[in-house]
Write a structure and sequence with these properties.
The protein is of the alpha+beta class and 156 residues long. The chain is built from four helices and seven strands. The protein has a seven-stranded mixed β-sheet, sandwiched between helices. Helix 1 (11-21) packs across helix 2 (26-39). InterPro entries: Acyl_CoA_acyltransferase, GNAT_dom.
Length: 156
């Protein structure tokens, strides 16, 4: 598996991903794609045959806060799931975040992600890579629904 920063050539991937997971409004999907490519930092993972997936992170509350949110990680197709790609993608993402902060000489304090209660595989991947449960959010997306905030802390 190889990876690279997302570029404008990946715009359709993010549009399709938005339409599949978040809603059917084309205009919002296009804005989401632009944000993933031009505003946030997205890593595209692929092999010789196809795109495996992408993971996107963003700086929250300004660079000096040291806060980063990983806000999307998707493995593109079912035949690529269960092969350890999610773990490899997260490892590369964490390395990218850490090296980015080191390069700009700012302290990284915390990386976090909000994960849906049904996404047990995702929750396990984050725990495996040093993310701890920070808080449970009840009634997050709908009544009776829970999400979990996981964080990897860098401050002492």
């Amino acid at each position: 598996m190889k990876y690279r920063l997302a570029s404008k050539d990946d715009q359709q991937y993010f549009i399709d991903n938005y339409l599949k997971h978040y809603g059917s409004v084309q205009e919002l999907a296009e804005k989401y794609a632009v944000a993933c490519i031009e505003v946030h930092r997205s890593l595209m993972f692929y092999n010789e045959e196809d795109t495996i997936g992408a993971i996107t992170w963003s700086i929250k509350e300004g660079i000096s806060s040291g806060l980063v949110e990983i806000f999307q990680m998707f493995i593109h197709s079912e035949h690529n799931r269960g092969k350890g790609y999610g773990s490899m993608m997260l490892k590369c993402c964490v390395e990218d975040i850490e090296s980015y902060y080191k390069k700009i000489d700012h302290p990284l304090r915390r990386a976090f992600i909000v994960i849906d209660q049904e996404n047990l595989a995702g929750r396990n991947v984050y725990r495996k890579h040093g993310f701890d449960l920070l808080v449970e959010v009840k009634n997050h997306l709908r009544t009776g629904h829970k999400s979990f905030v996981y964080s990897k802390d860098y401050f002492k």
